[in-house]
Amino acid sequence: MIALLQRVSEARVEIAGETVGQIGHGLLVLVCAEPADTEAVGQKLLSKILKLRVFADEAGKMNRSVLDVGGGLLVVSQFTLAADTSGGNRPGFTGAAPPALGEALYDRFVALARAQHPTVATGRFGADMQVHLVNDGPVTIPMRMS
Fold this sequence. Notes:
By secondary structure, this protein is of the alpha/beta class. It has a single domain, classed as D-tyrosyl-trna(Tyr) Deacylase, Chain: A (3-Layer(bba) Sandwich). Helices cover 24% and strands 38% of the residues. The chain contains three helices and eight strands, in the order βββαββαβαββ. It has helices at residues 39-51, 66-69, 99-116; strands at 2-15, 18-23, 26-32, 55-56, 62-64, 72-77, 120-122, 130-144. The strands form two sheets. Strands 1, 2, 3, 6, 7 and 8 form a six-stranded mixed β-sheet that branches. Strands 4-5 form a two-stranded antiparallel ribbon. Strand 1 and strand 2 (18-23) form a beta hairpin. Helix 1 packs across helix 3 (99-116).
């Protein structure tokens, strides 16, 4: 699985002008399933995300996790994280899981997140979404788990 984390002071997802998910302080998690991914890979990625120390402590060092600071998670599916730009000028997306598998893994990732973290909001798989965020720092962390 591929994830792109952005530490945010606020973030929301809109679909057709309606806000479907929003958080205050926390992490925007853009996530993409790959063809060989499993629920176990998703759990491993989620565990790492929840413990990743990207929030400042009292000394201003990135030493606290989203769990430590009580921040929210906004989880948004984004198959374009698997883009292959090695040939030509149009990206290919064969590295992303097929839609049915991608949706199943995304849904399971969200369910696991909700079972392990008190504040989890989402977008909607396959929808045309507008993601609004205030990147805090800015802090943006790419992750890949297999």
